[in-house]
Amino acid sequence: VHQSKLDFFCKLGYGKQDICKVLENLGQEALEDDVLKELIRMGSKPQALESQAQPSPVKLVARGSCSTSPGSKWLGEDHGDSSDHLRPIVIDGSNVAMSHGNKEVFSCWGIQLAVDWFRERGHAYIKVFVPLWRKEPPRQDSPIADQHILEELEKQSILVYTPSRKVKGKRVVCYDDRYIVKVAYEKDGVIVSNDHYRDLQNENPEWKWFIEQRLLMYSFVSNRFMPPDDPLGRHGPTLNNFLSKKPVLPEPKWQPCPYGKKCTYGNKCKFYHPERLHQAQLTVADELRAKIRVPLSLGKAEGKRNGSP
């Protein structure tokens, strides 16, 4: 009997010590209602009620910092990371640096500008490929500006040096363009370069399609990295759709017909006619036939009436 009552009140959430104390005072044969009244009189509460009564501790957050709790996300932010919806970026470091240096100086600052532009957009995977011999001290025939930027990007695991070595005093350089296209193809990313890689397009038909569809060209305007808003032409995707894995299709915008009500194309007209919203778009010939049929049918009906007795 004692064990059954103990199990019963334990299921209600009361502590074993309080239950045993009440049963010792009232006796083992006490009714359940009496035991419950005594527990309430002693001030004992079920554990569920105690947890509700205790207020949750207030977490102090430093001014200017964001809360790390999962429920405190910005409005409109998905449960997944925004970088998951953006394509990986593979930058042709030599092409970008020489473009920023006006094809005279290997400007490492241009690489930094390109990396910062994609970082601000939220791209998590950014890789820059540069030949290994660019770590050597600059020479008159190959000047380098801001060479310390390469070391900083290498520490951040963004810059990757392609192999090169010297054999009998001559430099042997591996083809860095092959690294760029291969990594971008495997990652299903975007190539940032003004080079067309025609030799690699002829080498592999799959690479040919990939380079044509995923090559992002750019310009430098007053130390500002500027890719085009329409990377694949005026009729292609926007820059945001080009750089995202899940492009957002824009709503169709109907262009009004330049002929207006004088248009003679009828339902074959590809432009927008606001006056035909609630009308069937018929061709001019069909409209004329419909107008001719109405008086003919009326004339036949009147003739039948006159000829009838």
TrEMBL record:
Gene3D superfamilies: 3.40.50.11980. CDD domains: PIN_Zc3h12-like. GO terms for cellular component: cytoplasmic ribonucleoprotein granule; nucleus. Residues 251-276 form the C3H1-type domain. It comes from the Eukaryota. The keyword Hydrolase applies. A zinc finger (C3H1-type) spans 251-276. Pfam families: RNase_Zc3h12a, UBA_6. Belongs to the ZC3H12 family. This is ZC12D ribonuclease.
